[in-house]
Amino acid sequence: MNATLLECRGLTMKFGGVVALNELDLDIRQGEVLGLLGPNGSGKTTFFNVVTGIYAASAGSIRCEGRDISKLTPQQISRTGITRTFQRSRLCLELSVFDNIAIGDHQNLNNGLWFNLIRRADLEKQIRDTFDRARALAKTFSPTLSERMLQPAGSVTMIDRRRIEICRALISRPKLLLLDEPSAGMTHEETRELMDDIMMVRERIPGLTVVIIEHEMNVIERITDRCVVLNYGRRLCEGTYREIASNADVQEAYLGQS
Amino acid sequence: MTMTKNNGANLLATVTGIALMTVFSIFALHAENETSLLILLAVGAAGVFVAYKSGFVARAGQGLQAHRHVGDLCIVSAFAAMVLVFRNDHFALLQLATVLLYCVVCIGLNLQIGYCGVMNFAGAAFFGVGAYTAAVLSTHTQLPHLLVLLAGGFAAALIGSVLLLPVLRTRGHYAALVTIAFGTLFRSFLEVNDTLGGPQGLKVPGMQILGWELSEGITVFGMSFSFYVNYVILAFVLLAGVFILTRRIKRSWLGLSLDAVRIDETAASTFGIHIVRWKITAFIIGNLFAGIAGAFFAMMTSFVAPANFTFGDSLILLSIIVLGGIGNLWGILPAAAIVLLLPEKLQAIQEYRFLLYAGAVILILLFRPQGMFPRRLRTLIPGLGTLK
Amino acid sequence: MDIGFIGQHIWNGVMLGVIYAMVAVGFTLFFGVLDVIKFSHGDVLTLGAFVGLATYLGLQRLDVMSPFAQLIAVLALSIVSMAFLGALIARYLVLPLRNAPPFITLLITLMVGTVIRESIRLFYPNGSNPQAFPKLLPTESWHLGSFTLRVDTLILVVVGVAVILLVHMLVNHTRLGLAIRAVAQDSETARVMGINFRWVVLATFGLGSGLAAIAGLMNGLYYSEVYFGNGTMLAVIGFSAAVIGGLGNIYGAILGGFLFAAIQIATVVVLPLPSAYKDVVAFCVVIVLLAFKPTGLIGEKSSERV
Fold it and tell me: Given an 8 Å threshold on Cβ–Cβ distance, is C103 in contact with B176?
């Protein structure tokens, strides 16, 4: 039985009168690939936003490896090794592909004034090193992308932009990667490729845990170890894909919503 | 590998370009009456148009990138040539120095607004803070003038921090409000304050650095130079230093973080970038530049008065960076020259200058928001990625 | 302390508060609908006053002497022309730039304000000097002990409060108001629901600018003069007032307007500094307030979703 990486208890998120998360209890186990499912509005992205500190939970707790992270800022949370992609792509389109990926490694780069302004030779070394790592990472997803490292991110295809977001989340070798509908807008073929690439990278980063919000069920079936279905901000059911797919409550939640 | 012939052609373009611009500037500054200036401007505009269309500008840009040292040498020589030509013309030299100092402030503004996205509508007020600090310190203390310059910078940085820190956790328009209010109230505050000279202002002694008395003319090789040459040279050194520093910021992780803060705060925080820290850093550095430039200006003109630091002046500074291209350092010098010198030469538009500049900025923002020189993609290290 | 003396100051504060509140409501409307700070608001106010002045002078030329007719004409022309100008500014300068970074919109509206201000200064005869503003309202004063009440200020305050109440009613109890609130909350959904975004924006800007015209006329009638530079300070004050109350919130704007006036009056009465400091002090209080309650006393509208 794997250790628990993230433990949420009674997690509640209210926006005025709207209850987006309703006393959610959720465990994420070390090293697993967890599918987070549920109809639109069930609180999946809100869950990501609360975990990454963008929203402060109205009630409840989140513990990461035993440590309470529910009151931390997004910056502090990223230092605990949690990274993410966004449902609505949030890239800096006017910056280069490399710039965007390098932002993901901000924690590990030297941002001191003295280093950046005076010790230029050392800075150059760090830049080259980061460039090589970013390019290698981009190459696993798309060789063409790796050749466009210094072009503006706005000039590459939508698919490549999603890949850039994923590279940005991976370059810091995180513990927990939260993917928010990474395959939106892709064909089946592209989705399959993307998932294979993510799995390949996962092997290279030992212990990486992935939580993926998705609507493509074949993807979920293929790559996830376990699934959790949310509905109205609560956990509806959990289990392997097979188990939850044949669950009557789940079917009603997706299809039979009144 | 790029062909040597191309390389040579690029280099030639760069050198020729800088030489032509220098010659043009010298003629423009020399122009005695308005007709000759207008003719010159027309010729210049035509020349620029031809240069763009024929690819000359692109070549020159490449040459500048590839041969940085030659480019730097050309610029320094161009500057030296101008100093030589105008060596006895007090007024032209004063104008030149003023343009250089305003460029320093604008580089600071570009850092704050163009890189980090922190709004600053009080550029002239922070310039004024530096100026008044220099006035007070150099009249009432024996502080060496180099330190007075620094003190002007620190005063501007300090006041800026006090203004901005309370509102940094909020959205951008609060920073705008605070700086607009400061920019508007600064002059009124000075005018009611008799200890700071009131509306008449204060006198400031000339600069003296390590025995070099800048308010005295010098004679070299039998040629006499107006004392303003001292200030022009020093202003050039200051501008060069500030330019190089800012360019280093841009080409480093600092510049990347600043851009990330400007473009998308939420995403930036998710990756560990501390929004408040970067905004305040950019603001402080930018104000340091403005304050030092202001202190310099005070000692050069021997005088400070509230009328020099109005909200209208802050708006002129903003016009300069919009015209030159927000986020582009090179565009600042030509833009400053145009905005500051044109009304001096064309007396007819002197009275209308605020109206004209405001109108020009509106047109630029609507139709060519990137300005004369759009900001280019960051090249952290020239040639990065082409080694393999 | 002399009651009359305090009363005078309080009444002064009420008068100023009404004017500030009107300007602040304009700012808050623009921000609510388009997330935009329209800094030309103050100068539109001044222009409204000048249009009023020009109308009056024109009427004099035409020998129209009835004060009633004069008042109506001045009001009508001023409000309509400024509403129209506001809509024009929205249509050609603000709407096209709504996807640009907010700095750009702020800058362009600042520049528009400058254009208006400088145009008045340069093109109105003797524009760089303050112009006498006609006394279109009854000029008697009532004396209650040491308290002198100018009748025209009474009228102005009543009218001002009435206008603010009207705006409040409009925003909360009419279809246009509903559309404005819908767009302010969530413009995308509002459009999907069939609300004509563009018209709502133009109407809002027109409304706000009409308000500015009224405020400008009130300002002119109160001080009996207008000056091309009035607008900048009023814009800063109006903006601050809207911010203290919470941008996007009409009640906040009204509260902010009166609060700012109160701080100014308190400064003049309580502190020994010359009255020129009142703006500086009031402003510092605003900054301190913002430090503690960054989203304003009542709270600004909800921010973006992730």
Answer: yes
What's the average model confidence in pLDDT over C199-220? Answer: 90
Judgement on whether residues B48 and B22 belong to the same structural domain of the protein: yes
Question: Are B70 and B101 contained in the same domain?
Answer: no
Question: What digits encode the pLDDT tens for the residues C226-261?
Answer: 998 888 889 989 988 988 888 878 888 999 999 999
The number of distinct structural domains making up chain B is 2
Q: Count of domains in chain C?
A: 1
Q: B264 and A110 in contact by Cβ < 8 A?
A: no
C269: containing domain: 3-292
Please check whether residues B147 and B283 belong to one and the same domain: yes
Q: Which chain C residue lies closest to A50 (C-alpha atoms)?
A: C306
The ranges assigned to domains in chain A are 1-81+174-258, 91-173
| CB-defined contacts A:C, below 8 A | 6
Whole-prediction pTM: 0.90
Chains near C with 3+ CB pairs less than 8 A apart are A, B
ipTM of the shown complex: 0.92
- β-partners of residue A83 are A177
In a domain, C300, yes or no: no
Comparing A256 with C18, which gets the higher pLDDT?
Answer: C18
| Residue B145 sits in the same domain as residue B187 | yes
The per-residue pLDDT for range C118-171, each reduced to its tens digit, is 999 999 888 888 888 888 777 788 887 777 788 888 888 999 999 988 988 888
Of B171-175, C57-61, C224-228, C280-284, where does mean pLDDT reach its minimum?
B171-175
Question: Which chain B residues touch C43 with a CB distance below 8 Å?
Answer: none
- B97 and B54 part of one domain: no
Residues of A in contact with B381 (CB under 8 A): 124, 127-128
- 3-class secondary-structure state, position C70: helix
Q: What is the CATH number of the domain that holds B313?
A: 1.10.3470
- Count of CB contacts below 8 A, B vs C? 110
pLDDT value of position B388: 38
CATH of the domain at C160: 1.10.3470
Q: What CATH class has A1-81+174-258?
A: alpha beta
pLDDT in the model for residue B88? 78
Asked whether the beta carbons of residue B184 and residue C232 sit closer than 8 angstroms, the reply is yes
Question: Is C108 at the interface with chain B, CB within 8 A?
Answer: yes
Domain containing residue B26: 1-85
Q: Percent of chain C, pLDDT > 70?
A: 96
Residues B23 and B97 reside in one and the same domain: no
Residue A123 at interface with chain B, using a CB cutoff of 8 Å: yes
Q: Which amino acid is at A224?
A: T
Identify the residue among C34, C114, C234 best suited for mutation to test binding to B, counting B beta carbons within 10 A and taking the highest.
C114
